[in-house]
Amino acid sequence: MANNSVADLFAETQDTSLATPGMNRATIFFLITIVVGLSCGVAAFIFGHHNIYNNTREVPWGLLISTYAFWAITSTGLCIYAAISHLFGGTRMAIVSNRMVWMSIVCILGAFATIGVEIASPHRMLIYNIISPNPTSNIWWMGTLYGLAVGCMIVEFFGIVTGLARIAVILGTAGAVAEILANSCLGGVFATLPARPYWYGGQLPIYFLTSAFLSGAAAAVLFNFLAYKIRGAEMSEAVKNGVKSAGKAMILVLVLYTVATFWRLIMYYVGGSELGRIAAGALINGPLSINFWVFEVCVGIILPLLLIILSRLQNLGMMASAGLLILIGQFIARYDLVAGGLLVPEFIGWDNAPTYLGYVPSIFEIAVVIGSLSVVCFGFLIGERVFGKVFTQSEHH
Amino acid sequence: MNIEELEKEKNEGIETMPIEERRNFLKMGLMVTGVFLGGTVLSLTSVDTAKGTSNAVVPPDGKYPYTKHYGMVMRQNNCIDCEKCMDACRETNHVPEGHGAWRTMIQERITTVEGVEKQEFRPILCNHCNRPPCVRVCPTKATVKDPETGIVVMNYSKCIGCKTCMAACPYNARYFNHEKYAIDKCNFCLDTRLSKGEKETACAAACPADVRVFGDIKDKSTEIYQLLHEPDNKIWVLRPECGALPNVFYMNA
Q1: Does residue B88 form part of some domain?
Q2: How many domains does chain A contain in total?
Q3: What was the pLDDT predicted at A393?
Q4: Are residues B32 and B91 in the same domain?
């Protein structure tokens, strides 16, 4: 009976139009890249994290932490927009909010997959995070709140699928609050370290939240566009309006994010800590300058702005391209933030320390990133296939 | 009443001032200087500065929450970079080779004093801070201040290997111990020497140049106490701007 009811449920939610060989091939492709990519991470437990990742004593964090932050921040953004739509209704984005909830869950799973193989002993985390919590630790709060958020969102999504609107709204709101707090604690992990002047300061958690609103809007536009693209279907006017609303949010927050980035960097050149200024120099004219000027500024800010202006918020293809470019820029921005804080030697001036320490991600680290990207792509396709009708149904809240 | 008129007035002196007025005047002064508030909230000049102790990075007497309060003084200009301290530490504490594993290190730089190049050595190790950033950030309390000694210690079985403590440490004092598969650090030889009745750390005992003076900075009879409280000694700490309140102090002999 139970099997029947589950089968009945999926029969109502699945989108059989996507049961095509092409979709199956794509889904299997991403499944394989998940296995291959994350296997490279799991290999760390066999061969030693210190042997296959290029992190060092001086640069203990790198590409994997920044990738984790990228997915976690994107998840927060998607969750917030979905919650606003569900909670207040009436917003044009409401019609695409179910897809945003699903993708928020998928993105946080991508984040967990990355951090799971980055941490040296995650099994100890499962035990001692519970029996030996440290309430002054930002990373404890961050992990706990993201865990809580994903729990809330899974129940929320269950509520959406089964039509339990009240559960969906309550858990969706709780999930969004947990995500915002978790995002804030993620910013706090970096912002509360006086040892790293490039990170230290009250602006960073706000910068993280701004990044969440930006990445979330960009992901909302991109994934909704792709959802119709893979079906070869035309969006209804209501869905188009929803995506356009996400596009408006995207351009608004892009401006705010640009302002935050500009002032954040200027601050290092008007006084303050020498180590902070040297770190900022890594982005302006140092080892991260190509990342910064080409990917963060040109790809992540200027091109998307031009595309959105040229699209006049009407051409969804151009807006989706802008969304993709913003996400690429955000991914690189997370890397530059993490690396920038650590590339400056703490005892500069001693031991012939170079101005910037060397860190280049290993092939294993890159493989894990590809694995996490595949988690998100796989999750997107599975979501469209299994819950497609839930995503396209009219909004009732 | 303007200033010119006031100047013409005869000075009455303070003898005629009512006692009530004097009290009010003094009270106002005390409030402004923040004495009522412990000298730190309103005061432009803190009580510590007034006492002449704030420049000192040494904690004042009576401010030690631990039974013992271990620290180390480095008589930096005595160091000759013989690295005996590093060898003794590695051997005593079984610090593995490679992958950036070390508990103490000697830094080196060339400075120019009055046109003459001079080699300078500086030993470093965990500063066992009073406000340790590593302890605050650890999600599982795998690293804590030992309440008996004030030493920052590791509980390896609780360490998840998130490396936040490594990012948080202002002194590059932490490393990933690939044998224990946990973060590791100097613990002033608490388990390998102090708990066995030794009075010194391995590095301090091995130093032929008498650079490292280890001891209980709370105990007035110790050499370290006397060095830290000798008014003529110029004492400094590393990266004071981080606010970690380190317990490793530097001076020139």
Answers
A1: yes
A2: 1
A3: 66
A4: no
| Rounded CA separation A395/A381 (Å) | 21
B153 with B38, same domain: the answer is no
Report the helix count and the strand count for chain A, using DSSP H and E: 15, 0
For residue A335, give its domain range. Answer: 2-391
Which candidate from A133, A138, A195 shows the least CB-CB separation from B169? A195
Predicted pLDDT at A16: 85
**Number of domains into which chain B is organized:** 2
CA distances from A88 to A82, A83, A94, A97 (A): 10, 8, 9, 12
The confidence score (pLDDT) of residue A349 equals 87
**Res A5 pLDDT > 80:** no
C-alpha angle A276-A277-A279 in degrees, rounded to nearest 5: 65
Compute the average pLDDT of residues A364-368: 98
Query: Comparing C-alpha atoms, which of B172, A279, B232 is closest to residue B251?
Result: B232
Global ipTM: 0.93
Q: What are phi and psi of B249, to 5 degrees?
A: -115, 150
Q: Is residue B64 part of a domain?
A: no
From the CA atom positions of chain A, what is the Rg in Å?
A: 21
Residue A396 domain flag: no
Nearest alpha-carbon partner for B79 in B105, B106, B113: B106
| pLDDT value for B50 | 46
Residues in A whose CB is inside 8 Å of some CB of B read 48-50, 55-58, 60-61, 119-122, 124-125, 128-129, 132-134, 136-140, 143, 189, 192-196, 273, 341-342, 346-347, 349-352
State whether A132 and B169 contact (CB < 8 Å): no
How many angstroms away from the CA of A150 is the closest CA of chain B? 19
Q: Which domain holds residue B172?
A: 70-251
Inter-chain contacts counted by CB atoms under 8 A, chains A and B: 129
Does residue A397 lie within any of the structural domains? no
Q: For residues A303-319, give the mean pLDDT.
A: 94
Distances (CA, A) of A292 to A229, A328, B225: 31, 12, 50
Percentage of chain A lying above the pLDDT 90 cut: 81
Closest CA to B72 of B241, B238, B208: B238
Q: What is the pLDDT of residues B24-61, one digit of tens each?
A: 877 777 766 655 555 444 445 444 444 444 446 887 77
Q: Where residue A227 sits, what CATH number does that domain have?
A: 1.20.1630.10
Residue A81 in contact with residue A253, Cβ under 8 Å? no
Question: Cβ separation of A349 and B109 shorter than 8 Å?
Answer: yes
Q: Which of A65, A184, A142 is nearest to B139 (CA)?
A: A142
Distance CA A266, CA B239 (A): 24
The CA distance from B142 to B180, in Å, is: 13
Residues of chain B with pLDDT under 50: 39-43, 45-55
Tokens of A285: 């004219």
Given a contact cutoff of 8 angstroms between Cβ atoms, the answer to whether B130 and B242 are in contact is no
pLDDT at A90: 60
pLDDT tens-digit series, residues A133-169: 999 999 999 999 999 999 999 999 999 898 888 888 8
Check residue A297 and give left, alpha or beta (phi > 0: left; psi -120 to 50: alpha): alpha
CA dist., res. B214 & res. B1, Å (int): 66
Helix extents (H) in chain B = 3-8, 19-32, 47-51, 84-93, 133-137, 164-168, 202-206, 223-229
Looking at the structure, tell me whether residues B45 and B75 fall in a common domain.
no
Give the whole-angstrom CA distance, residue A26 versus residue A374.
10
CA distance B144 to chain A (A): 10
